[in-house]
Amino acid sequence: MILEVLVSAALGAALAWAAARRLPHRLPSRALVFATGLAGALFGDFVTHSALGAAPVLVTLLGAAVVSAASLSLLLRPAGRLRRRSAPA
């Protein structure tokens, strides 16, 4: 079980690193990105393990990856401003 937690934390760190490397202009500080990736993976592992009980380790790691990616996606800022303006009434 401790190995499962360590692997899910490493998975969250890897997802956070990939997001910070790929989209640095759309994310806040790197420390917040890594903390969110780790916390999302650990929370996803906890929720999946609690919901499914004695499920295979790969299933709980998949749940950790999904929750980590979802929480990292909440940090994204829009790429640019919308340039269209509404027509005056």
Q: What oligomeric assembly is this protein in?
A: single chain
What's the total count of β strands?
A: 0
- Overall residue-averaged pLDDT value: 89
Rg estimate, integer Å: 17 Å
Backbone structural class: mainly alpha
Distance between the termini: 63 Å
Count, helices: 3
Tell me the fraction of residues in β-strands, as a range. Answer: under 5%
Query: What sort of overall outline do the alpha carbons produce when their principal axes are compared?
Result: elongated
Q: What percentage of residues falls in helices of 4 or more residues?
A: 55-70%
Low-confidence stretches: none
Summarize the helix and strand pattern as letters. HHH
What can be said about the biggest beta sheet?
none
Structure description:
This protein is mainly alpha-helical and 89 residues long. It is 69% helix and 0% strand. The protein has 3 helices and no strands. It has helices at 2-22, 30-52, 57-73. Helix 1 packs antiparallel against helix 2 (30-52) and helix 2 (30-52) packs antiparallel against helix 3 (57-73). It starts with a helix and ends in a 16-residue tail after the last helix.
